[in-house]
Amino acid sequence: MSPxxxxxxxxERCVAVREVLSRxxxxxxxxxxxxxxxxTKRFTELKRAIEGISQRMLTLTLRALERDGLVTRTxxxxxxxxxxxxxxxxxxxxLAPVETIAAWxxxxxxxxxxxxxxxxxxxxxxxxxxxxxR
Length: 134
Prior knowledge:
Blueprint: H1 10-24, H2 27-36, E1 41-42, H3 43-49, H4 55-67, E2 71-76, E3 82-87, H5 89-107, H6 109-133
Antiparallel strand pairs: 1-3, 2-3
């Protein structure tokens, strides 16, 4: 087998999938990717558009996405300093799967909430029975 056709083990596949999912599966990265799917955004535009994200968390998220080659950061020496973010071609390939997952989550949100409520009720009943048996 040539070095270009290295055999990938199941463990290596799992690590690769886990690494990618941990990056693109967190709640902030998904929102940033979807927003940048609309086009180039400034840091402040992203900050205003993502409810609840701190400046530090947005900075860390953008840095991680840039490190993974999904986002490009461009600094303009204007006063005040202007920084733009845009999806790379690789980042654009991720947009459709992320949007599909986001749409699925939105479509099934109520069903998931009903399942959670039913589970929590069963768990509470089980805890109550255990307390009675003690």
